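Annex B. Sample input.
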Amino acid sequence: MIANYHSHTPRCRHASGTEAEYAKNAFRRGLKIFGFSDHTPQYFPGDYYSFMRMYPNELEDYCQTVRSLQKAYRGQIALPLGLEAEYYPDIWPELLPRLQDAGIEYLILGQHWLGNEQNEHGSGGATADESLLKRYCHQVMDGLSTGKFTYLAHPDLFRFVGSRDVYRRHMGELCRFTRQAGIPLEINLAGILCGKHYPSEEFFALAAEEGCSVILGMDTHRAEHILDPAPEQRALEIVRHYGLKLLDTVDLRPLK
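Annex B, continued. Sample output.
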């Protein structure tokens, strides 16, 4: 593994360690690229704010911190400045120009909620409701259609426990879309490390059938996890078992 584009900072309120510690361990591991992609601020109407992302007034410091590390590690390791964002259609038109003005270099799509988050279904919550699965797949495809997302993080986050034929039909459509759009799918190493319901072998079997490309993503929330090789080895077993097309690096899609 020479590149990781998925990592977080304490600003998301569920990670620990400093950006400097992350960069140091990424360099120690021998990575050539280590992208920072903390959870983006979102500009919700009213006084609502979710518990798992940075606040809007923290974005400037986040950018300055990563840019400082880019200078410190120049010529040693690339540290692109990114964010992980959901596609929330009602507030996307306000979010995108703010991130462009801040100089964010790339986005990855991680769709943690349906709709615009408030009073909506969380993607990781178990459900047998086909309509929710269909909404997830179509919202993800709508987000990727903006052309602003470099790849799809934990595409198998949606936890559908109903008919497997229904699951394969809708997730198969999503896989076909990403292949045709040239969007890589992430095999999420944090899911392996933490024993989550993803990566889903059922999903990646579909991805292999559709000829999708995949990329490994650490989804780091603790600096020491960067140095643990076990999740990568398990992910590579999935790649080999299903004959997936594994990418070492991806081209960052510019926001402008």
